Amino acid sequence: MKSDRLLSILLLLQTRGRVPAPELADRLDVSVRTIYRDVEALSAAGVPVYAERGRHGGIELLAGFRTDVTGLTADESRALFILAAQGAHAALGLDAALGSALRKVMAALPAPHRPAAEVASRRILVDATRWKSGPQQAVDLDVLQDAVFSDRRLKLRYRHSGEREPRTYTVDPYGLVAKAGVWYLVADRRGAPQLFRADRIRSARPLEEPVRRRPGVELADAWEVLRRQVEEREGGIEVTVRVRRERLDMFRRVAAAHLAAPPDDDGESEWIIVRLAYPVLAAVRQLLAFSDRVEVLDPPEARTELLAAAASVTALYQEAPGP
Predict the structure, then answer these.
(1) 261: left (phi > 0), else alpha (psi -120 to 50), else beta?
(2) What average pLDDT is seen over the chain?
(3) 170, 207 in Cβ contact below 8 A?
(4) If residue 265 lies in a helix (H) or strand (E), which one and from where to where?
(5) Residue 61 to residues 36, 46, 52, 67, 242: CA-CA distances in angstroms?
(6) Using 50, 70 and 90 to split pLDDT, how confident is the model at 84?
(7) Of 89, 212, 269, 316, which one has the greatest count of Cβ atoms within 10 A?
(8) Looking at the whole model, is its pTM more than 0.90?
(9) How many whole angstroms separate alpha carbon 59 and alpha carbon 52?
């Protein structure tokens, strides 16, 4: 709706200052021509907005102009009070600030929408932590936050998975990302994006040097590149197994990260075919936890790997127990 778009333009200009017309058009999914027509409509309604053309031009509100915008819809009011990843606010030290902000928003809401927003906050809860993820090491994000918000480079001591000793890196941070309850630092190292899991950072020290980010690259851009690298990582091994029906639900939960496709379930068979993808052959040993409820069908080397693992366990328990 045009009224929603005009309100969005007003909020963006009030928050960002001067914004190029093509950027507004891209964010609101309309043409640049439509943006200029909307600016004319705002001006006709008494909003002191103007456009400057040229390379460094853009659309801007008159300096000092502010407005209290309370034209929220019922759905928008509810959305503000359904907060995902509540643990994220605590990790960033923002729990108190969040509560204060919500109280202020509640006071500014149109009176008819306040009951719906309050009910939404009591009826919807989003917990982004995975089931049975195990105890998480405490993460101190203060130093990382300081570097991110002050645009300074960071010197890290970071321990990679599978390594005992940490390595030292100088990085240019873009920001922090919370994914399924785990915090990551997204940064450039030598001009290339890299992901650092926060609970593996042994120490972090902001440097006096200003950050050196790649021009035009934002946190969301760098995260998207890294996310795809993780999800589309080459190599690994594809494994086909059959799972007994009574264990299928549990199997899907435990092996969720390795499912390559939905199970071939006809709703009747005792055994269901499932296809998995593992990063390395040795990872198929996970399947031993299901005993004879899961059988590897292909490839042969995966069966051989499980056979060797089972033989090793059998030999261990045939020995006399240790002291």
Answers:
(1) beta
(2) 82
(3) yes
(4) none
(5) 14, 11, 11, 11, 64
(6) very low
(7) 89
(8) no
(9) 6
